[in-house]
Amino acid sequence: MLEKNVKLVNDAFKEYYFKHFELIHVPTRTSEREFGYQKFNEGMTRHLSIKDDNELHLLLMTQVPSDVYCSNAYYSFPNLPMTEKDWKGADLIFDIDAKDLKLDCRTSHICCKCNSCQNIVKQGINCSVCGSTKLETISVTCENCISESKKEVARLHEILTEDFGIQKKEIQVYFSGNEGFHVYVVNSDYQTLDSRERADLADYIMFNGIIPETLGMSKQNNSKFALPDVNERGWRGRVAKEIFTSKSKRVKIVQEILSGGYSVFQAKLEDWRQKIGVKIDPKVTMDIHRIFRLGGSLNSKSGLSKIMCKDLENFDPFSDACLLDDEKVEIIANCPISFKLKNKKYGPYEKEKITVPKYVAVYMICKGIADIN
Amino acid sequence: MIQLGIRDLVKYPFLAETGEYLRDKGFNLEQLGHSDWKPIVEKAYGRIVVATTGQIYGSAIEDFENVDSEILSFVIAVVLLKSAGIPTLIKRFSLAEARRAERYLQQDLLQKKNETNSELPLKIMQDLFSVKVMTTDEDFVISVSDYLKRAVQFHEKEWKLINRRVEKGFVFLTAHETVRLIRKELDGYINSKILAVNIPSIPDIFRERVSDLSLLAKKFSEYVTVSSDYPPCIKHAIEVLDRGENLPHSGRFMLATYLLARGQTTDQIAPLFKNAPDYNERVTRYQLDHIAGSSGKGTKYSCPSCNKLKSENLCFEIPECSGIINPTQFGKKRTANA
């Protein structure tokens, strides 16, 4: 980030942290967690331990981090180097990011910025000014992305409660502060799972690696009675709901499945995975040493807050998580696409001088589509 | 508290209760050195030979007259193995005995359905391996976390959680699957029991069979042939980099650890990443050195397993991958000399 921009964003972040202590708390088992933070244009400082809210607030005020992180893991010695921390367990964590959902809306709300000459174009493989291929994709607010991500969260929630027996009160959903959601499970049964075990759990959630036999389809002697039924629990029930769209069609569809045979059925599994598998990022769930963005902190990719969603259905991140000041700021905006914050549309702008509320200015600077005037 | 019957000790001679039983009956090693006991020494040796061929030794538990000799043959087999001190034989024996016990556990579990007083298999699982198994009308159920901790050791697709009936935090299993799940722990338990046994000196009638065990062990050396071809996941990663496209961090890690495992140096590997869109020579070197263990804490990282790569969408399995669990095994053919 350019130095002239850093001052504005840094001040805005400091003001947020000063005004919103009530949103930022240390998680449970605080003394066993590792904390870390980054400052604008600086590297990561990690392996910190923090004992309570007061100490955290002091760190936020003195350091004014661009991003704050906290481990999902519990350690005996969180502030020692990785190999000496003595890992004791970790909350299950899930990351659902709209960019992984392969949505059609995506092309309408992204633009590209050249890493070499900073030129911004709507789309392309090469920079139209210097020809470089090193283009960075910038994505701005999109209601469809959020609504589709919410659906993934809801489906994940169903699997966690129905299949894994996790209680609703043990599941916490946060808006990530950019384009997705972070889900935490605080349940002692799952805390000691290692990375490989979590990978298999992630595969289950993503509908990865299912074999036709699980759904009652064998290489020979198939029977309609072995196929899944809509009243079954777990993935068999979910697949049945996907295949047998209505009761009256079941007989016909069963016939088609049986005559199609094993290999046709196997090929369909991939289609179903795309449709009904929950699109979590498996790398996040598998990582038992991750420091994950701290709830209540600001995301430097957007200036939005990572806040808890108590009512997911009605949650509007682009208003509810937009908590910076609305003081007017003058910026030079260069953004070929439009976006919405607090229900107001902004853009497109072509290298224009504009005056906008501070939260919009910070959002655009963090996204790399504006500079301070 | 469960009262163990003598038949239970024939089935599960590795339980601590076996020692108590033999002590109560007045058996000791010195006494077993008498030539009258030669047939049991032969039986014990036979038990080891059967184990080394990968077969399961069968005890006639219906034959009550032979109960003591069945139990003793296990104990003497352990004495012979321990005296020979050959890890590969102990390993093979533990595994074979684990599979034998597995068979009885399965039978006992199925019997459990009919006899409410037969709690032994569930108790063995709970006490020895901390797995709480519960029964339903038709199945056995264990918690998802207990299941995952064991099932990830298996590489067959049917053991993946997605291929199981999972409800409300529990996984449903048959009796066979339930005991299969703890085979490795059972094996490990028997193995550790054997290793922990302390034998001061052995009777003379044992010596001949102890030296026979050394001959037996010679059969089990392996030859490995290595092909020069890369597995498809590695080929794919190299192609992505060649095209100048972005290879995710996990893919770069896989490539680096694989090539290091094949004996390449960081100097040989670094140029591969030159085409990466975010290539930075200094960072690449630093990370490669770190993975190779020549910087940082000195931890040398190994190549991720095929399972892990599948989860990360880095696996591009072809028929030649059959039977391997890590890319580094690709193209290596094991031929046993037995």
Descriptive account of the structure:
- The complex is a heterodimer of chains A (373) and B (338).
- Chain A has 373 residues and is α+β, with helices and mostly antiparallel strands.
- Chain A folds into 2 domains: 3-101 and 141-204 and 281-325, DNA primase, PRIM domain, CATH 3.90.920.10; 209-276, no CATH class.
- Chain A has helices at 3-19, 53-63, 143-163, 188-191, 195-206, 234-243, 250-276, 282-286, 317-320, 358-367, and strands at residues 35-38, 44-48, 67-71, 73-75, 87-90, 92-97, 110-114, 120-121, 135-139, 171-175, 180-185, 291-293, 328-335, 339-341, 344-346, 349-357, 370-372.
- A 4-stranded antiparallel β-sheet of chain A has the order 2-1-3-12, with no helix packed on it. In chain A, strands 6-11-10 form a 3-stranded antiparallel β-sheet.
- The model of chain A has no long low-confidence stretch (mean pLDDT 93).
- In chain B, 52% of the residues lie in helices and 7% in strands.
- Chain B contains 16 helices and 6 strands.
- Chain B has helices at residues 6-11, 17-25, 29-32, 38-52, 67-84, 87-112, 120-129, 144-151, 175-181, 183-196, 204-217, 232-242, 249-261, 266-269, 281-292, 306-311; strands at residues 134-135, 140-143, 166-167, 170-173, 222-226, 332-336.
- In chain B, a hairpin with a 4-residue loop joins strand 1 and strand 2.
- Chain A binds chain B through residues 81-83, 133-134, 162-166, 189-190, 192-197, 199-204, 207-211, 213-214, 233-236, 282-283, 286, and chain B through 143-145, 148-149, 151-152, 157-158, 160-170, 244, 250, 277-278, 297, 299, 305, 307-308, 310-312.
The proportion of residues in beta strands of chain B is 5-15%
CATH fold topology of the largest domain in chain A: DNA primase, PRIM domain
CATH class of the largest domain in chain A: Alpha Beta
Report how far apart the termini of chain B are: 45 Å
Report the radius of gyration of chain B as a whole number of Å: 25 Å
- DSSP strand count of chain B: 6
- How is the biggest beta sheet of chain B arranged? 4 strands, antiparallel
In quaternary terms, these chains amount to heterodimer
What Rg of chain A, in angstroms, do the CA atoms define? Answer: 24 Å
Shape of chain B: globular
Strand content of chain A: 15-25%
- Briefly note the structural class of the backbone of chain A: alpha+beta
Q: Taking all residues together, what is the mean pLDDT of chain A?
A: 93
- Gross morphology of chain A is globular
Low-confidence stretches of chain A: none
Helix content of chain A: 25-40%
Give the helices and strands of chain B as they follow along the chain. HHHHHHHEEHEEHHHEHHHHHE
User: How many β-strands of chain A, per DSSP?
Assistant: 17
